[in-house]
Design brief:
By secondary structure, the protein is an alpha+beta fold. 27% of the residues lie in helices and 20% in strands. The chain folds into three domains: 13-104, GIY-YIG endonuclease (3-Layer(aba) Sandwich), CATH 3.40.1440; 119-218, no CATH class; 229-291. The chain has helices at residues 28-32, 59-67, 73-78, 90-104, 154-168, 187-190, 204-215, 272-283, and strands spanning 4-5, 11-12, 39-44, 50-56, 81-86, 119-122, 132-135, 147-151, 229-235, 238-244, 249-254, 288-291. Strand 1 (4-5) and strand 2 form a beta hairpin. Helix 4 runs antiparallel to helix 8. The longest helix has 15 residues, at 90-104. The relative contact order is 0.11. InterPro entries: GIY-YIG_endonuc (IPR000305), GIY-YIG_endonuc_sf (IPR035901), GIY-YIG_UvrC_Cho (IPR047296), UvrABC_protein_C (IPR050066).
């Protein structure tokens, strides 16, 4: 379809979706089997290799939307069939999607498939403490208090700290962003962008209070339970319990007669994706949480 000009002089460009056809090479039976229920789906190629993993509260509708998207033609051309796995709700789908992307490393999930080495800002309890950048390999983020923000790189953590310092008129020298001689005003103070804690114009206690308050929105929540807990979801009479221990997803229990026991993950460390999926719903009290024995 070519672009055309209307009678009033408007240029109408062709819509790629108007000429897009469903990829007939994708196994039709695998598409017909897709349920309109929560879970994850996997596009696979002719050698059964995973190409893309996604999740939805309506698997069928989401997969069909992929088939109608011309921008995803490259992934669709490689696809042979679509596999799905049901979950009892959206939380279970999010957790399973995150785990499978890390385990299976699908070609087209580039952003999520990396197992990231995260860093954070740690602030000690003393009023003279400056934020320091620490890494997950050295500190258990699930058990350590006084951690703020999750960053993929040291540079990103430094840039965020600098942004906070500038916005709150904090002292770059006292926050570790600038070196200066003790008792001498930092550069920000010289241009009236620091309240002067570096030279005693602002009490150290007040500077520390303001710094901590500014960081508080990024505070990493310490795991609030002694051990593993279960997040319960139900759908059409089917109950699942997703087992989480210190912000790590261990697996899900299906409460159906004859179901296999939970397949536990090998690791049990802080997982940034699980944390991001769960922390806000837990704080808002939106989840049904029960004790579990594993």
């Amino acid at each position: 379809m070519q672009a055309r000009v209307t009678s009033v002089g408007l240029l109408i460009k062709p819509n790629p979706a108007d000429t897009f056809e469903y990829p007939h090479h994708i196994d039709r039976a695998s598409l017909d089997a897709l349920p309109s229920k929560p879970g994850i789906y996997i596009f696979r190629d002719t050698q059964n290799r995973p190409l893309y993993i996604g999740k939805s509260v309506n698997i069928r509708a989401r997969v069909l939307s992929h088939l109608r998207t011309p921008e995803e033609a490259r992934m669709l051309q490689q696809s042979s069939h679509v596999e799905f796995r049901r979950t009892a709700g959206d939380i279970g789908a999010l957790l399973l999607e995150s785990r499978l992307i890390k385990e299976l490393q699908p070609l087209h999930n580039k952003k999520l498939r990396r197992t990231r080495e995260m860093c954070t800002l740690r602030l000690g309890p003393g009023v003279k403490s400056a934020p320091e950048i620490v890494y997950a390999r050295d500190h258990d983020f699930a058990r350590t208090a006084g951690l703020y923000g999750l960053f993929a790189t040291r540079k990103a953590a430094q840039e965020k700290l600098r942004e906070i310092v500038e916005m709150q008129m904090l002292c770059p020298a006292l926050t570790g962003l600038e070196s200066t001689i003790r008792g001498r005003a930092c550069f920000a103070r010289q241009i009236s962008r620091c309240l002067g804690a570096c030279i005693g114009a602002e009490p150290m206690q007040e500077h520390y209070r303001r710094l901590k308050a500014a960081l508080n929105d990024m505070r990493i929540m310490v795991w609030p339970y002694e051990g593993a807990m279960g997040i319960v979801e139900e759908c059409d009479g089917w109950k699942q319990t997703h087992v989480i221990d210190h912000w790590f997803y261990l697996g899900s229990i299906d409460h159906v007669a004859g179901s296999p026991p939970i397949k536990r993950a090998a690791r049990k460390d802080f997982d940034v994706d699980t944390y991001k999926i769960l922390v806000k719903p837990i704080l808002r009290g939106e989840l049904r949480i029960e004790a579990v024995e594993i």
